[in-house]
Amino acid sequence: MLTFIPTPIGNPQDITIRALKEFEKASLFLCEDTRETKRLLRILEERFDFAYPSDEVEFLSFHEHNGAERLGEVASRLADEAVVYVSDAGMPVISDPGQLLVEHCQEHKISYDVLPGGTAVTTAYAASGFKEGEFTFSAFLPQKGSERSSSLIEMMNRSINVVLYEAPHRIEKLITEIAHIDEEREVFFSKELSKKFQNYYRGSAKEILEQFESGSINNRGEWVVVIAAKKEKVNALYVDDILAFDLQPKVKAKLLAKLTDKSVKEWYNELIDL
């Protein structure tokens, strides 16, 4: 049987008793990163009543680059052994290569179980204090170029709050981009959730950007960002924003068509003429 086990997103004390018991039964660990999993298990051994796996227990990497190939290697073992899958931190399968394993189990009628556990997404949203009970999770934005710009603009035009992740070296770039589109948009930035240097920052995009620029917020650590939904439709502002971005005419035309009564073709021809 295959069991998906959530791991702490920061603080090792957030591990569950069920997770510890499943770890002790496992004969095969499938890990996003075997080094991270072994490091966690050593910490659990030191701090809790937990026995580190014996030498007979196997640890294999299973990540976005080798998942399909690795699945072929271990598929025959999933039904007959006590196999666990863990990501580096948080809930497995969500924006995670473990999805391949779930799909395989469903297709081949192999028993599997998913233990409940914390995720950075819901933890950050709960901490944000935003009143709306619904939101959409968008994982990571594209790293650069017109694809990143168009994705962010599309998110900020949604009528629902958005939660996303961002890398430390791009976090200041993100708040700069948000402020450029709508400096009054309310945002919530959470840093190092459940860890020693955890911090929360809520305010307008302009206010948060000023804190970054003044040095009162540093970019180190892991970040989860909540962007408040667009409260009212102000097409002129967003049309101007899109026109100002360095995007390919086809991309601009598609975005502009969503905000106006003009078709993609009409906008494309107008942009070409410009």
Describe this structure in words.
This protein is of the alpha/beta class and 274 residues long. It has two domains: 113 residues, Cobalt-precorrin-4 Transmethylase, domain 1 (3-Layer(aba) Sandwich), CATH 3.40.1010; 112 residues, Methyltransferase, Cobalt-precorrin-4 Transmethylase, Domain 2 (2-Layer Sandwich), CATH 3.30.950. 41% of the residues lie in helices and 17% in strands. A five-stranded parallel β-sheet has the order 3-2-4-1-5, with helices on one face. α7 runs antiparallel to α8, α9 runs antiparallel to α10 and α10 packs across α11. The model has no long low-confidence stretch (mean pLDDT 91). Keywords: Cytoplasm, Methyltransferase, rRNA processing, S-adenosyl-L-methionine, Transferase. This is Ribosomal RNA small subunit methyltransferase I. InterPro entries: 4pyrrol_Mease, 4pyrrol_Methylase_sf, 4pyrrole_Mease_sub1, 4pyrrole_Mease_sub2, rRNA_ssu_MeTfrase_I, SAM_MeTrfase_RsmI_CS.
How many strand elements? Answer: 10
Distance separating the two termini? 61 Å
Number of separate helices: 11
Tell me the β content.
15-25%
Total of domains: 2
Largest sheet: 5 strands, parallel
Helix content: 40-55%
Q: Quick one: CATH class of the largest domain?
A: Alpha Beta
Specify the overall morphology: globular
CATH superfamily of the largest domain: Tetrapyrrole methylase, N-terminal domain
The third-level CATH topology of the largest domain is Cobalt-precorrin-4 Transmethylase, domain 1
Strands across the major sheet, in which order? 3-2-4-1-5
CATH architecture of the largest domain: 3-Layer(aba) Sandwich
Seen as an oligomer or otherwise, the chain set is single chain
Give the SSE order as H and E letters: EHEHEHEHEHEHEHEEHEHHH
Unreliable residue stretches = none
